[in-house]
Amino acid sequence: MQRSNAAWTSNLGMANARTTFTATRASYAAGLNVHREVEHNTGSTPFEFTAENYEEIGRILKKYPKNYKASAVIALLDLAQRQCDGWLPLAAMNKVARVLDMAPIRVYEVATFYTMFNREKVGRNNVQVCCTTPCMLRGGYDILDAVKKHLGVEVGQSTPDGMFHLMEVECLGACVNAPMLQVNDHMYEDLTPETAVKVLETIRAGKQPKIGPQIDRNGCEGPQGRTTLNEPASGPFCRDLNAAMKKYKDEEAKKMEAKKAGAKK
């Protein structure tokens, strides 16, 4: 839900409450997905995967048939973005295209479609505040305003020290624990403006905040705690694949022995 430069007034029809949303600059993760030619981001800018990441690429490509290795494009773009501290330069996309034998435009299409890929430099900690309907109704914009005030930046900007970057994003899939925000790979839920700031300050101090709910909640259980699935599941259970593979190999070995014995006769 995008807010314009003018203040919005929305009647939510909930207990006849009337909520006014303050204005903010319209800037989302998608705004970082358009290439802008700058000195540090050109097609000739040096980029090479590290030796460790080449090993990881080898493991990733084993998951796909050789004629379908382009299926690994998202995984390799993510690997490149992590190596570049959270953003994806043009040279990295070109490298992914060469590794996967893809036309560069095919890689660009993927990188510019998904907002998880940042096409400009961002801070080391990418703060993504969800303001989609469930979070909005639970105070998502209050969280966003608190983060903006605390960091001293607007949406789409990074702090001067490069520690944080702020985004306003759509649903991150933790609606039941709204409002929430995500920093890099971790989600922080059941927030108040105060606990949101506490999460950021903990990260600034070089520590890991509690991941998940910031209240006394176990996962996404309701206020009454767990009311179902209180006993171990009765099945069906997944078979032991290691045992099944061992049984298969043993049977194949016996067949080979019997075949050899028959040949000697």
How would you portray this structure in words?
The chain is α/β, with parallel strands linked by helices. It has 2 domains: 8-28 and 121-213, 3-Layer(aba) Sandwich (Glutaredoxin), CATH 3.40.30; 34-113, Arc Repressor Mutant, subunit A (Orthogonal Bundle). It is 36% helix and 11% strand. The protein is built from 8 helices and 7 strands; from the N terminus they run ββααααβααβββαβα. The protein has helices at 51-61, 73-83, 90-99, 104-113, 133-137, 140-151, 193-204, 241-264; strands at 8-11, 18-21, 125-130, 164-169, 181-183, 186-189, 212-213. A 5-stranded mixed sheet has the order 4-3-5-6-7, covered by helices on one side. It has a two-stranded antiparallel ribbon with strand order 1-2. α6 packs across α7 (193-204). It is flat and about 85 Å long.
Give the helix/strand layout.
Layout: E1 8-11, E2 18-21, H1 51-61, H2 73-83, H3 90-99, H4 104-113, E3 125-130, H5 133-137, H6 140-151, E4 164-169, E5 181-183, E6 186-189, H7 193-204, E7 212-213, H8 241-264
Parallel strand pairs: 3-4, 6-7
Antiparallel strand pairs: 1-2, 3-5, 5-6
> Which stretches are poorly predicted, pLDDT < 50 over at least 5 residues?
1-31
- Principal-axis shape: flat
How would you state the average pLDDT, rounded?
A: 84
Task: Calculate the terminal CA-CA distance, rounded to whole Å.
Answer: 79 Å
Number of strands: 7
Note the total helix count: 8
Strands in their spatial order, largest beta sheet: 4-3-5-6-7
**Residue share in helix:** 25-40%
CATH 4th-level superfamily of the largest domain: Glutaredoxin
Instruction: Identify the CATH class of the largest domain.
Output: Alpha Beta
What radius of gyration results from the CA coordinates?
25 Å
CATH topology of the largest domain: the name is: Glutaredoxin
Biggest sheet layout: 5 strands, mixed
Identify the CATH architecture of the largest domain: 3-Layer(aba) Sandwich
Q: In total, how many domains does the architecture comprise? A: 2
What pattern of helices and strands is seen along the backbone? EEHHHHEHHEEEHEH
